Amino acid sequence: MVRRWLIRVIGGALLVVALVQCSRSVAEENVTPINNREYAPTVMKLIQEARSNIKLMLYQTRFYEEYPDSESNRLLEALLDAKKRGVFVVAVLDLSDWNEENMRYNTDFGKRLAAGGIEVYFDNPKVVSHQKVILIDDAISVVSSTNWSHYSITQNEEVAVTIWSQRVNQALTHYFNQMMAQATRYLAEPSIPGLAQARGFLSFPAEQIGILANRDYFPAVHRAFQAARKRIDVVQLEAMYYMVRLPYATEPQKVGESASQTNVLLRDLAEAKARGVEVRVILDVQENRANRNLDFANRLLAYSVPVYFDSPEVQSHCKLILVDDDVTILGSTNWSYNALQEGNEVSVVIRSRAVAKQYRNYFEEILKTASPVVAGADFITTPGLHSQN
Q1: For residue 216, what are the β-bridge partners?
Q2: Whose CA is closest to 15, among 291, 271, 172, 227?
Q3: What Cα–Cα distance (Å) separates residue 338 from each residue in 153, 241, 360?
Q4: Phi-psi bin for 304: left (phi > 0), alpha (psi -120 to 50), beta?
Q5: Which of 40, 184, 214, 378 might form a disulfide with 71, Cβ 3.0–4.6 angstroms?
Q6: Residue 385 DSSP symbol
Q7: Which of helix, strand or coil describes residue 319?
Q8: Which has more pLDDT, 195 or 377?
Q9: Residue 160, φ and ψ in degrees, nearest 5
Q10: What whole-number distance in Å separates Cα of residue 340 and Cα of residue 264?
Q11: DSSP letter string over 196-251?
C-alpha cells in the first residue's frame, strides 16, 4: 500500500517535471478564461488599451464588405486605430496554397492592415500556420482556438485564455519571431505587477504555464495522459486515426512507429480508462455532413471510453484537454497528423486548480447539449442519436 502511494506521488512529481521540460514552462502571473462570446469584447478591450505593441499570429481572418459591423471588421478597425495612436502592430497570417478561399480572405485582410501602416507577413504557403495568438505590451498573451471569422467569434464553441505574464509573453514572442523570420513581408502599395487587475479583468492564479509550440504539443499531452490519476476530459473539433502514414508526410514512418501521434493519444486514453481514470471525450459533429470523427469515436468505444457528439447545430471548434483537477491544455491544435506533426500550432498548458475549474464548468456546459455515441452508430443514418434541446 505504501509502495503504491509512493509510486503515485513520484508519478505526480514526474508529471510536473515533464510538463516543465517538454513545454518550455515559464513563470506565470494570472490567467483569465475568455471562452465563446467573451473572446471578441476581451480582445477588443485589450487592443484598445494597448500601449506599446501588438503582435498577432492568425490562421483565418475575414473582412465582410456586406456586414460592416461584424466582429472581425471591428477588430481590424481597432488594430488600425492602435497603429494611429502610436502602437507598434505586426501580424503573421497563414497563406496555405491548398486553401484558396482562406488565402483570398487573408490576403484581403492583410492588405487592409498594411494600408494602415501595420507590418504584415504571410507565412510559407507550403506550411499551414494554424496558430491563433495575440501578444500585447510584452506582458499579455491570448492563446485560443478562435479564428477571426463570423462563425468562430459569434456561434462556435471556442476556448481561449488570456495570460498575464511577461515571461510567457517573452517565450511566445520568441516563437513569433521564428515564424516571422520564415514568412514574407507584404509591402503595401502607394508589463506590470497586478496587470490583470489594473485593467479590470477577473483572473485566476496559476502555478505553472508552459507553451506548446508545434512539436512540443504531443509529448506534453502524451505524458499528461500517462500520469493522469483521476480523470481526463477532452473536447476536440477533429480527432483522426490513421491506418497508414499520409503519402505527403515529410517524415517517413519508422519500423514500429505509429502512423500518427493521434493514434498514440487514442491508446493513451484507452490505457487511462483501463487503469481506472474517468475519461470523457466530446467530438464535433455537423448535421448533413460526413462525420470525420466517427472512426475515432468507435475506436474509443471499443475500449469502453465514453464518447459524445456535440449538438450538430453548433460547431465545437475547441481544442481543450483537462487532466485531473489542475492541468488545462488549450489552443489551436487539432488531433490530426498535420496539426501534430507538420503544421504550425500554439497551445498552452496551465497548472492551476482555479483555472481548471473554470474550464471544467465550460466542459460540463457543452456536455449538456451533447449526446452519447452508441457503438457502431452513424450520425447521418441513426435517428435520435442527438437530443434536440
Answers
A1: none
A2: 227
A3: 24, 12, 27
A4: left
A5: 40
A6: S
A7: strand
A8: 195
A9: -150, 160
A10: 11
A11: HHHTT---EE-SEEEEEEGGGHHHHHHHHHHH-SSEEEEEES-B---SS--TT-SS
DSSP for 43-99? HHHHHHT--SEEEEEES-B---TT-TT-HHHHHHHHHHHHHHTT-EEEEEE---TT-
d(CA 277, CA 269): 9
Q: What is the CATH class of 30-205?
A: alpha beta
CB distance 367 to 373 below 8 Å: no
Q: Give the residue among 235, 213, 241, 261 at the shortest CA–CA distance from 321.
A: 235
The domain limits of the chain are 2-24+208-372, 30-205
Q: Is the dihedral of CA 177, 181, 183, 186 positive or negative?
A: positive
Which of 13, 15, 14 has its CA nearest to residue 323? 15
Give the fold, CATH level 3, of 2-24+208-372: Endonuclease; Chain A (3.30.870)
| Coil, helix or strand at residue 309 | strand
Please state, in angstroms and rounded to a whole number, the distance separating the CA atoms of residues 336 and 109: 27
What predicted TM-score, i.e. pTM, was given to this entire model? 0.78
Give the cell for residue 274.
Answer: 483501463
Alpha-carbon distance 142 to 34, whole Å?
9
Strand 278-283 to strand 307-309: parallel, antiparallel, or no bridges (unpaired)? parallel
| pLDDT at residue 301 is higher than 90 | yes
Give the type of residue at 300: L
> Do 2-24+208-372 and 30-205 come out as alike in CATH topology?
yes
Question: For 56-114, how does the pLDDT look when each residue is reduced to its tens digit (9 = 90+)?
Answer: 999 999 999 999 999 999 999 999 999 999 999 999 999 988 888 999 999 999 999 99
**233-255 pLDDT, tens per residue?**
999 999 999 999 888 888 888 88
261-274 and 217-227 helices cross at what angle (nearest 10)? 10
Contact 340, 250 (CB under 8 A): no
